[in-house]
Amino acid sequence: MSNSDGREALQSRRDEILAELEGVNRDQRIELDEMAEEQAIQLEQNEVANSREAGLRRELADIEDKLLDLGE
Length: 72
Description:
- By secondary structure, the chain is mainly alpha-helical.
- The radius of gyration is 17 Å and the shape is rod-shaped.
- It is built from 2 helices and no strands.
- The chain has helices at residues 3-28, 36-69.
């Protein structure tokens, strides 16, 4: 794989991650249900979303570092 192919793949993945992060952030803006059981489920889903966001942000940082190394 040439440097330009690698750069394009990294840029493409970066764009995918940014779109996913936008979706995660949009999904986190919820109003809690009045029922305690539903709140527990919503809070658990929020924790999963936070974990997913953290993983995406780590991957994004790694991609940004690689792109810097490639001279972008």
